[in-house]
Specification:
Elements: H1 8-18, H2 43-52, H3 55-58, H4 63-80, H5 84-87, H6 96-108, H7 112-120, H8 125-137, H9 139-158
Helix pairs in contact: 1-2, 1-9, 2-4, 4-6, 4-9, 6-7, 7-8
């Protein structure tokens, strides 16, 4: 049995709003919703906020939560201040061991290329630029990964 989360209703509300969003999009990322038809706030960010508001989930011990957090962080920082802040662990919530654990989990769950791109960013600035460029060119895949992680989370925590 999985550990109980304290803000289940908040997650249920976020998931209800996610179901109104398109299944595929190359315009939605962690920083902003770049899609005129969506008048909702950023569901991806609301999901992250719900994670950070729950003491158990905030620890990032759960693989789904850690993978979502690392993907959301690199995506947001890439858009906002530059991907190098992610790799430098500027905000002290992207420890390399947590990022690599997330990448390992992503690989085991069908996201090999994304995980390899993220991992390679630790090799240097040029690889970080490559990771940022790859993410810019694969927004639809990243959005699909967010959705997949969110529905996995729902199955584990909200339907249990």
């Amino acid at each position: 049995m999985s550990k109980s989360i304290s803000n289940k209703e908040e997650f249920i509300g976020v998931m209800d709003r996610l179901r109104k969003w398109p299944e595929r999009s190359d315009h939605i990322n962690a920083y902003a919703v770049v899609w005129d038809e969506i008048e909702d706030d950023n569901v991806l960010g609301n999901f992250a906020d719900a994670i950070y508001g729950d003491e158990y989930l905030k620890s990032l011990q759960d693989d789904i939560v850690n993978a979502y957090h690392q993907l959301y962080s690199i995506d947001f920082q890439r858009c906002y201040e530059g991907i190098n802040t992610f790799y430098e662990n500027f905000y002290e919530d992207n420890a390399k061991e947590d990022v690599l654990r997330a990448c390992s989990w992503l690989k085991r769950n069908g996201h090999e290329q994304m995980a390899e791109i993220i991992e390679a960013g630790y090799e240097g600035r040029e690889e970080q630029k490559t990771a940022a460029d790859w993410m810019n060119d694969h927004m639809e895949e990243i959005y699909a990964t967010y959705r997949s992680l969110m529905f996995m989370f729902e199955e584990k925590y909200l339907k249990a």
